[in-house]
Amino acid sequence: MINKIAIIGGGNLGAAIAKGLVKSGKPFKGEVIVTRRRVHLIKSLEQEGISVGQDNLKAVENADVVILAVKPYQLEDIISEIQPALSDEALLISLAAGVDSQRISEMASGRKSIFRVMPNTAISIGESMTCVSSYEATEEQDAVIRELFEPTGTVQFIPEELMASATVLAACGIAFALRFIRAATQGGVEIGFGSDLALKIASQTVKGAAELIIRGEAHPEAEIDKVTTPRGITISGLNEMEHQGFSSALIKGLITSFEKIENGSKKR
Ligand SMILES: NC(=O)C1=CN([C@@H]2O[C@H](COP(=O)(O)OP(=O)(O)OC[C@H]3O[C@@H](n4cnc5c(N)ncnc54)[C@H](O)[C@@H]3O)[C@@H](O)[C@H]2O)C=CC1
Ligand SMILES: O=C(O)[C@@H]1CCC=N1
């Protein structure tokens, strides 16, 4: 049973996770506490039933789950700071992109039961794609983490060697998908809609396309075939996009992000 979750680092993702966990109806009893040095910036979380604080040690005391939501280069300092208050049983979760579990374990004096969790920012509305890898954890501990995150979206356990790929496809993927929506909106304005209406139409269309795949388990190309009338307008537009490098640009972007993680730039 989880009685207390401490989230160290109430930035973009830390705050989104806190909201997501609380909104999900809490598969646990007790408290979610988020820390940040400039705590006034996260005071508003209190209105959503989330505790906030500045004292990392105090937050970690008696916590069953500790989520490290700081930048990768801050991980080492934070771990040495909280270690005195970290109980042996606590499950340690790192969100840091590109820092592997073995390294985290070394930072934490050889600690076991370490999880890397890579949600995306849609966790704040219960629609995350959350990839998880576990390091020297028991099946029961894996189940605890699965149960914790399942109400916040879709959870997929993956081998740790795929965490960098998951980061690009799911976490960065939110930005890539949103850039598609923005571009579609701009195109929509050129062909006659006001920007608000163009955005509404473009975003619901993307949602519908995604749901066709998620619910129908169809292949995207099979759904595309249903829309592309022979000599019709869709295929002309689609082919023009491909002539301009649409799929290629997306794939190259994914690979560029992936290479950046793999090359491990330190100050991200
Ligand atoms: N899955 C995803 O969609 C994303 C994952 N990430 C990963 O999540 C982690 C957090 O990223 P963001 O939320 O974007 O960063 P951020 O910079 O918005 O948040 C980090 C927060 O930690 C706080 N912080 C720094 N030192 C602290 C300390 N000593 N005590 C308490 N709080 C402290 C900072 O003030 C900041 O608010 C990163 O490791 C990043 O790799 C980041 C963005 C998106
Ligand atoms: O852009 C980044 O480095 C972070 C990691 C995943 C999403 N945002």
Kindly describe this structure.
The chain is an alpha/beta fold. It has 2 domains: 155 residues, Rossmann fold, CATH 3.40.50.720; 96 residues, ProC C-terminal domain-like (ProC C-terminal domain-like fold, Orthogonal Bundle). Helix content is 48%, strand content 15%. The chain is built from 10 helices and 8 strands. It has an 8-stranded mixed β-sheet with strand order 3-2-1-4-5-6-7-8, with helices on both faces. The radius of gyration is 21 Å and the shape is elongated. The model has no long low-confidence stretch (mean pLDDT 93). Bound molecules: 1,4-dihydronicotinamide adenine dinucleotide and (2S)-3,4-dihydro-2H-pyrrole-2-carboxylic acid (A1CAB). (2S)-3,4-dihydro-2H-pyrrole-2-carboxylic acid (A1CAB) binds next to α6.
- Text of the CATH class of the largest domain: Alpha Beta
**Regarding quaternary structure, how should these chains be classified?**
single chain
Count of domains: 2
Order of helices and strands: EHEEHEHEHEEHEHHHHH
Treating each run of at least 4 consecutive H or I residues as one helix, how many helices?
Answer: 10
- Helix fraction, binned, reads 40-55%
Family: Belongs to the pyrroline-5-carboxylate reductase family.
GO molecular function: pyrroline-5-carboxylate reductase activity
Domain Pyrroline-5-carboxylate reductase dimerisation: 160-261
GO biological process, one term: L-proline biosynthetic process
Q: How do the helices and strands line up, and which of them pair or pack?
A:
Layout: E1 4-8, H1 12-23, E2 31-35, E3 51-53, H2 56-60, E4 65-68, H3 75-82, E5 91-94, H4 101-107, E6 114-118, E7 128-135, H5 139-149, E8 153-157, H6 163-190, H7 195-216, H8 220-227, H9 233-243, H10 246-262
Parallel strand pairs: 1-2, 1-4, 2-3, 4-5, 5-6, 7-8
Antiparallel strand pairs: 6-7
Helix pairs in contact: 6-7, 6-10
The structure holds 1,4-dihydronicotinamide adenine dinucleotide (NAI) and (2S)-3,4-dihydro-2H-pyrrole-2-carboxylic acid.
1,4-dihydronicotinamide adenine dinucleotide is lined by residues 8-14, 35-37, 56, 69-72, 74, 78, 95-97, 118-121, 171.
GO biological process, one term: L-proline biosynthetic process
Function: Catalyzes the reduction of 1-pyrroline-5-carboxylate (PCA) to L-proline.
Enzyme class: oxidoreductase
